[in-house]
Amino acid sequence: MVWKENVLESQTRSCRSSTEWVIPPPGSPPIAPTCPLEEASLNGSGTQLRPATGPTTWMSTMRIRTPVASLTWAPVRTNSALTCCPRGLREEVARFLSFYCKSPVPLQAENVVVLNGCASVFSALATVLCEVGEAFLIPAPYYGAITQHVCLYGNVRLVSVYLDSEVTGPDTRPFQLTVEKLEMALQGANSQGIKVKGLILINPQNPLGDIYSPAELQNFLEFAKRHELHVMVDEVYMLSVFEESVGYRSVLSLERLPDPQRTHVMWATSKDFGMSGLRFGTLYTENRDVATAVASLCRYHGLSGLVQHQMAQLLRDRDWINQVYLPENHARLKAAHTYVAGELRALGIPFLSRGAGFFIWADLRKYLPEGSFEEERRLWRRFLDHKVLVSFGKAFECKEPGWFRLVFSDKAHRLCLGMQRVRQVLEGKSQVAEDPPACQTQEPRDRHR
Ligand SMILES: Cc1ncc(COP(=O)(O)O)c(C=O)c1O
User: Fold this and answer.
1) What is the pTM of this model?
2) Residue whose CA is closest, atom 7 of ligand 1?
3) What does the alpha-carbon distance between residue 378 and residue 74 come to, in Å, rounded to a whole number?
4) Taking every annotated instance into account, which residue ranges of this chain make up the domain Aminotransferase class I/classII large (predicted)?
């Protein structure tokens, strides 16, 4: 079980690959190097190994416990195509996705492609689906790195479907995506001579933490079908929905996809298992031409045999995932969220968060007297000078200055310290909070019980 504990521990680290919440004060002890898969080979063996001590232990464990055959796995040629991983792993992924996406019928291994992370799936898909200069619609604010993902190889552009905080017309919540807004953005792109080839949906959404209802999903997919657009659905936070009441549904759970040949669904272990460093991403598409073309890029985006082997073991361990990992992970996310949300309320800061993902989308507009992006950047810089790293809205193409993304999936004492520093910045204090004893001892979960 030791390695599994480490997966839970590492959960808090994955988000910090993109957003480091707190920069530890000088002189604080270094964060112990851990790897999510330390002792991964324990899985199923029933043997108790000593606690992991770092990458060296992990590598020697892998060497001992990993079947030699997996070291020889490499891109393999089937009848007509190059595929990046053996059928066994794709079957495992298909079973995993069928179960967790709650698909009405079992998903097929033939429709699964595995590459090294969701970023690679974005790059590969965009390159395969578009000609140079063509575009995808994407509701903004969105996880900004996608701009690079689709541009890097394919030179594909993004057309933002700008959402705003004001609830107007038929909207029921801030930053709500509607078919009308999609239609307007598409028309706008067409009138500028931009060829739109598809739509990107992130569900649960980053940075909003929002989720789409099944009816909304259906409407967006119908919109895409009407305009013959491909839809890339990024469900990388699918298992990080910690409020059950929000009723998250994967697009693969829908009874009927309006246009299955143009619907492509992505998932990865980066977020839900806190393993962004391991690089494991999946694509599910019923379009065989697309699957074959994307899979052929595995020459450059494939997984090592070691990772394939370890991931197959992890994905099939349904008992541990259901009974140990997910309940604990959700409880920790919920506790951390409750703590940060409480602190923001105490500061009188409005925020959005619907119980999914690792972040809160906070409205700091009252701290920008002129409401400019320049001020937003200056405020972000002040946070940084106070050793707390949050992300400003401009990085997500948000059109309203003053929104910030705060990642809360971190250890209690770091969240506590981070919130103290946030408070100091917002109250205009000049000193930087160092780690006080109170922050090191109490877990937010305990305090909110
Ligand atoms: C919405 C979203 N998609 C994709 C990614 C990238 O995932 P990966 O690490 O698997 O490339 C991220 C990472 O932050 C993300 O937030």
Assistant:
1) 0.84
2) 118
3) 48
4) 89-408
